Amino acid sequence: MNQTSSKNRVQEYLPTNWSDFDTLLGHAFGAIRPRVTHTAYARASIWEDKSAYHLELDLPGVAREGVELTLEKGVLQIVAERKRPDEERTNLLEERDFGKVTRTFALPEQADPDGVSAELNEGVLHVTVAKVPEKLPKQIVVK
Questions:
Q1: CB atoms within 10 A of CB 129
Q2: In the chain, what are the domains?
Protein backbone atom coordinates (compact mmCIF):
# COMPACT_ATOMS: atom_id res chain seq x y z
CA MET A 1 0.00 0.00 0.00
CA ASN A 2 1.35 3.43 -0.96
CA GLN A 3 1.51 5.65 2.14
CA THR A 4 1.66 8.93 0.17
CA SER A 5 -1.60 8.28 -1.67
CA SER A 6 -3.65 7.53 1.44
CA LYS A 7 -5.99 10.45 1.87
CA ASN A 8 -9.10 11.08 3.86
CA ARG A 9 -11.82 10.52 1.24
CA VAL A 10 -14.10 13.07 2.94
CA GLN A 11 -11.56 15.80 2.08
CA GLU A 12 -12.25 15.20 -1.61
CA TYR A 13 -15.77 16.56 -1.11
CA LEU A 14 -14.98 19.50 1.17
CA PRO A 15 -13.98 22.95 -0.09
CA THR A 16 -10.35 23.98 0.24
CA ASN A 17 -10.94 27.39 1.89
CA TRP A 18 -13.45 29.09 4.24
CA SER A 19 -15.00 31.23 1.50
CA ASP A 20 -15.89 28.13 -0.50
CA PHE A 21 -17.16 26.46 2.69
CA ASP A 22 -19.40 29.46 3.43
CA THR A 23 -20.74 29.31 -0.13
CA LEU A 24 -21.43 25.61 0.30
CA LEU A 25 -23.32 26.29 3.55
CA GLY A 26 -25.19 29.11 1.85
CA HIS A 27 -26.46 26.74 -0.83
CA ALA A 28 -27.42 24.11 1.72
CA PHE A 29 -28.90 26.31 4.46
CA GLY A 30 -29.60 29.65 2.74
CA ALA A 31 -33.25 29.75 3.74
CA ILE A 32 -32.52 29.45 7.48
CA ARG A 33 -29.25 31.37 7.83
CA PRO A 34 -29.64 34.79 9.48
CA ARG A 35 -29.17 37.82 7.25
CA VAL A 36 -25.74 39.36 7.70
CA THR A 37 -26.15 42.94 8.84
CA HIS A 38 -23.84 45.76 7.86
CA THR A 39 -23.42 49.38 8.78
CA ALA A 40 -25.44 51.83 6.71
CA TYR A 41 -23.35 54.14 4.57
CA ALA A 42 -24.24 57.29 2.65
CA ARG A 43 -22.18 57.94 -0.48
CA ALA A 44 -20.83 61.46 -0.91
CA SER A 45 -19.56 63.79 -3.60
CA ILE A 46 -17.51 66.86 -2.73
CA TRP A 47 -16.37 69.64 -5.04
CA GLU A 48 -15.62 73.34 -4.99
CA ASP A 49 -16.05 76.38 -7.15
CA LYS A 50 -14.56 79.86 -6.69
CA SER A 51 -16.94 80.93 -3.94
CA ALA A 52 -18.04 77.75 -2.13
CA TYR A 53 -17.53 74.09 -1.25
CA HIS A 54 -20.31 71.68 -2.18
CA LEU A 55 -21.15 68.34 -0.65
CA GLU A 56 -23.85 65.93 -1.78
CA LEU A 57 -24.92 62.90 0.20
CA ASP A 58 -27.24 60.16 -1.08
CA LEU A 59 -30.03 59.74 1.48
CA PRO A 60 -32.87 57.85 -0.24
CA GLY A 61 -36.02 57.57 1.86
CA VAL A 62 -34.81 60.02 4.53
CA ALA A 63 -37.23 62.79 5.52
CA ARG A 64 -36.04 66.35 6.23
CA GLU A 65 -36.86 65.80 9.90
CA GLY A 66 -34.45 62.85 9.87
CA VAL A 67 -31.41 64.96 8.94
CA GLU A 68 -29.25 66.83 11.46
CA LEU A 69 -26.24 68.98 10.52
CA THR A 70 -23.79 70.44 13.00
CA LEU A 71 -20.64 72.47 12.46
CA GLU A 72 -18.12 72.68 15.26
CA LYS A 73 -14.43 73.58 15.16
CA GLY A 74 -14.24 73.18 11.40
CA VAL A 75 -15.90 69.76 11.33
CA LEU A 76 -19.25 69.28 9.58
CA GLN A 77 -21.21 66.34 10.95
CA ILE A 78 -24.28 64.96 9.18
CA VAL A 79 -26.55 62.48 10.93
CA ALA A 80 -29.42 61.01 8.94
CA GLU A 81 -32.01 58.45 9.96
CA ARG A 82 -34.15 56.32 7.70
CA LYS A 83 -37.00 54.87 9.74
CA ARG A 84 -38.53 51.45 9.27
CA PRO A 85 -42.12 51.40 8.04
CA ASP A 86 -44.61 51.44 10.92
CA GLU A 87 -47.08 48.93 9.53
CA GLU A 88 -47.07 45.24 10.42
CA ARG A 89 -45.75 43.20 7.56
CA THR A 90 -44.04 39.93 6.79
CA ASN A 91 -40.92 40.62 4.74
CA LEU A 92 -40.01 38.10 2.09
CA LEU A 93 -36.83 40.00 1.24
CA GLU A 94 -35.30 43.06 2.91
CA GLU A 95 -32.12 44.52 1.40
CA ARG A 96 -32.77 48.16 2.25
CA ASP A 97 -30.93 49.79 5.14
CA PHE A 98 -32.76 51.44 8.02
CA GLY A 99 -31.39 53.32 11.00
CA LYS A 100 -28.87 56.11 11.48
CA VAL A 101 -25.84 56.95 9.42
CA THR A 102 -23.23 59.53 10.45
CA ARG A 103 -20.70 61.20 8.17
CA THR A 104 -18.14 63.79 9.28
CA PHE A 105 -16.10 66.08 7.07
CA ALA A 106 -13.22 68.36 8.07
CA LEU A 107 -13.66 71.70 6.33
CA PRO A 108 -10.74 73.70 4.95
CA GLU A 109 -9.74 76.93 6.71
CA GLN A 110 -11.32 78.93 3.87
CA ALA A 111 -14.78 77.63 4.89
CA ASP A 112 -17.14 80.25 6.33
CA PRO A 113 -18.98 78.75 9.33
CA ASP A 114 -21.70 81.39 8.93
CA GLY A 115 -22.21 80.58 5.25
CA VAL A 116 -23.59 77.02 5.42
CA SER A 117 -26.88 76.03 3.80
CA ALA A 118 -28.48 72.66 3.13
CA GLU A 119 -31.28 71.35 0.91
CA LEU A 120 -32.76 67.86 0.67
CA ASN A 121 -34.27 67.13 -2.73
CA GLU A 122 -35.25 63.73 -4.19
CA GLY A 123 -33.12 61.80 -1.71
CA VAL A 124 -29.97 63.89 -2.21
CA LEU A 125 -28.73 66.26 0.50
CA HIS A 126 -26.83 69.21 -0.98
CA VAL A 127 -24.75 71.24 1.48
CA THR A 128 -23.11 74.48 0.38
CA VAL A 129 -20.34 76.02 2.48
CA ALA A 130 -19.31 79.49 1.41
CA LYS A 131 -15.65 80.48 1.36
CA VAL A 132 -14.50 83.41 3.48
CA PRO A 133 -13.71 86.18 0.96
CA GLU A 134 -10.63 87.49 2.76
CA LYS A 135 -9.11 84.00 2.86
CA LEU A 136 -9.45 83.48 -0.88
CA PRO A 137 -6.15 83.48 -2.73
CA LYS A 138 -5.19 87.02 -3.68
CA GLN A 139 -4.05 87.66 -7.23
CA ILE A 140 -0.86 89.75 -7.25
CA VAL A 141 -0.14 91.79 -10.32
CA VAL A 142 3.50 91.76 -11.42
CA LYS A 143 4.74 95.23 -12.49
A1: 23
A2: 44-85+95-133 (2.60.40.790)
The model's pLDDT over 9-49, given as tens digits with 9 standing for 90+, comes to 655 665 555 555 555 555 555 544 444 444 568 899 999 99
**Which DSSP string do the residues of 32-58 spell out, in sequence order?**
TSPPPP------EEEEE-SSEEEEEEE
- pTM to 2 decimal places: 0.65
CA atoms of 82 and 100, how far apart (whole Å):
7
